[in-house]
C-alpha cells in the first residue's frame, strides 16, 4: 500500500513476515504523545529523548517488556516509577510464583513501586497528553505512560478466510514453515511455531523467528520432496531483572497438567560454585518430569550468576528424551572458579531421582 493506492504483484513463492503489533486498549486518549509501547527502536529513542521532562512514569504490564523497561528506567534517579500488573505476581505468563516473587523483590530493590491486581481502565488526557491513569483500585497522576500488555499477530489484512489461523490471528505453519496455501510461507511474530508438546503455539520470540526464517530460506532453494524441518520449539526463554537471571524451557506445570501428564516437580537451591569462591550464589531450580519414566518435560532456573547457562542442559535433555537420572550423573566440567565438583545441574536433577 503506497499513497493509498493498491498494487498487485505476482509471485512464485510468498513469505509472510508481517510481525506483531502491541496490544493497545480501546480507551479514549490512549494514543496521546506521552504514551509509549517500547516495541520499536524509534519509540525507545523518543522516550529516552524526553525522559528528563518526566518525573512520574506509569508502566502497565508485568511481563518481559514491562519488567525490563522498569529496571532500565530505575537508573534515572529523578524518576518515580509505578508498575501496574493485572495478576498477582510478575512474569506470570511463563514463570511460577516463586520466580515471580524473586523478580518482585529484585525490582523493588531498584526503587520500583509495584501494584498487583490492577488493570488499566481509563486515562484522563488533555491536549493529547495523558495526565492521569485509572486502574482497578487506583487513580494516579502521571507524566508518561508505558504500555507493556502484550502483542497481537499483525495479520488483520489477511481477512478473506483462506489462511488458516489460530484464535489470536496467528497464521498456522507446518514444520517446514508452509501455510495451508500452496507456495505461501510464514515466519515471525505473525505466525505460530511448531512446538514439541503444544503443536501449533504462538510464541513471539526472536529465537523461533531466526531459526524458522533460516529453515524457510533453505527450503525455498530445495525441491518439495527434499524439505528441511529440523526446528521444534520448546519456548525456551530468558530474562534479566536487576542482578537476577531467569530462564525456562519446555512445559510449565500448568501446561503439563493441561496435557494430562502424570508429572512430578523437583525443586532445589544449589550453589553455582564453591562457597569459598568469589561470586558464589544460590541457583533456584524447578524441574518438571514424568513420574513413571523420569523424562524431563520442563525446567526453570533463576539466580544471580550464570543461572541461564544452567538451563541449556535441560533444553538438550528435553529434545533428546533424557531423564533426571541421566542428568544426575553426566560428566560436566569442574573447576572451582566455575562450578562445584557435582555440577549444579547434577544436584538439581538428582532431587527427582
From TrEMBL:
InterPro entries linked: FAD-bd_OxRdtase (IPR050260), FAD/NAD-bd_sf (IPR036188), FAD/NAD-binding_dom (IPR023753), FAD/NAD-linked_Rdtase_dimer_sf (IPR016156), Pyr_nucl-diS_OxRdtase_dimer (IPR004099)
A GO molecular-function annotation: oxidoreductase activity
Domain FAD/NAD(P)-binding: start-end pairs: 4-194
Cofactor(s), by name: FAD
Pfam families for the chain: Pyr_redox_2, Pyr_redox_dim
Domain Pyridine nucleotide-disulphide oxidoreductase dimerisation: 238-340
The keyword Oxidoreductase is assigned to this record: yes
Keyword terms of this UniProt record: FAD, Flavoprotein, Oxidoreductase, Redox-active center
Source domain of life: Bacteria
Record Gene3D superfamilies: 3.30.390.30, FAD/NAD(P)-binding domain
Recorded family membership: Belongs to the class-III pyridine nucleotide-disulfide oxidoreductase family.
UniProt name for this protein: CoA-disulfide reductase
Source organism: Senegalia massiliensis
Lineage of producing organism: Bacteria, Bacillati, Bacillota, Clostridia, Eubacteriales
